């Protein structure tokens, strides 16, 4: 089989390796599609440091092509269409055993997976050996759509961290794919949603995804608009989906008393931010982080994509064949796409 391997900054090579043999407790999946996440884009550009060689890819849609002798074949059959929930959590720490594997103490992007020649998440390979607990059925939609289950699962977790209530005013800062998914889920949760971005085209799509108000922060003051729309009460929930530390303070300034600021993105560079501890004390708002997802999030994300409760087709900006995977990365890092998807 073939796999795409990072050997350095902007050095991605397709190489041949042995097809994994099915072990008794594993399932062999043939990858149909793998979306290029921002995380892998940062590996490609050198912003995210990994030990080379490294196999990326974790937004995966696939088909089962073989099952081990110990696998329950009532649940998992050859030909089943599945998405893969990355097995990066250790499974052994207190958080994993409490069902909070998204916050695993040893969350590891660089595991050596059985059947692959190098460390990494493995989705940029033609085949993978996986455990059944990490795969989830999907139906009705294309593999390109299903590959976006992983990012949607992360946003499911983010929105549940915020505990959105009917009638809440929710602000989403940043309208890339993750911001758009936050807009869609928040609006379907009964909230009034304000989308904020510098790009009018992205704001137009946010409107179609359910945003009630759109603020272009290049020409409008977000705080002024939030005060106007909320009649001075500010936002119950603020999602910051950008990697820009300066915007954290902006998020804090527009959150209501007892509200929540949710920091969704990783931050590059990771720099300290300031806030008023007295206002936090008196206002009772909270600042929460969210990263990754767990199996419960994956189950629901797969269902929503299968039924197009959340329609992810507008976020598939480009599809490239596996033979052109590096061209796909060069396209993705331009920053003008939602998702570039590699099709096998």
Describe this structure in words.
The chain is α/β, with parallel strands linked by helices and 344 residues long. The protein folds into two domains: 179 residues, Alpha-Beta Complex (Quinone Oxidoreductase, Chain A, domain 1); 131 residues, NAD(P)-binding Rossmann-like Domain (Rossmann fold, 3-Layer(aba) Sandwich). The strands form four sheets. Strands 3, 5, 6, 8, 9, 16 and 17 form a seven-stranded mixed β-sheet that branches. It has a six-stranded parallel β-sheet with strand order 12-11-10-13-14-15, sandwiched between helices. α9 links the parallel β14 and β15. It starts with a strand and ends with a strand. This is Alcohol dehydrogenase. One of its GO terms (molecular function) is oxidoreductase activity. InterPro entries: ADH-like_C, ADH-like_N, GroES-like_sf, NAD(P)-bd_dom_sf, Zn_alcohol_dh. Keywords: Oxidoreductase.
Please sum up the structure shown:
Keywords: Oxidoreductase. Residues 179-306 form the Alcohol dehydrogenase-like C-terminal domain. With 344 residues, this protein is α/β, with parallel strands linked by helices.
Which structural traits does this protein have?
Rossmann fold, 17 strands, 7-stranded mixed β-sheet, globular, 2 domains, Quinone Oxidoreductase, Chain A, domain 1, 6-stranded parallel β-sheet, about 350 residues, single chain, alpha/beta
Quaternary state of this entry equals: single chain
Count of distinct strands:
17
> N-to-C terminal Cα separation, in Å?
12 Å
**Cα-based radius of gyration, to the nearest Å:** 20 Å
Shape: globular
Which architecture of the largest domain does the CATH hierarchy give at level 2? Answer: Alpha-Beta Complex
Number of helices: 11
Domain Alcohol dehydrogenase-like N-terminal: 24-136
InterPro entries: ADH-like_C, ADH-like_N, GroES-like_sf, NAD(P)-bd_dom_sf, Zn_alcohol_dh
Protein name: Alcohol dehydrogenase
Pfam family, one: ADH_zinc_N
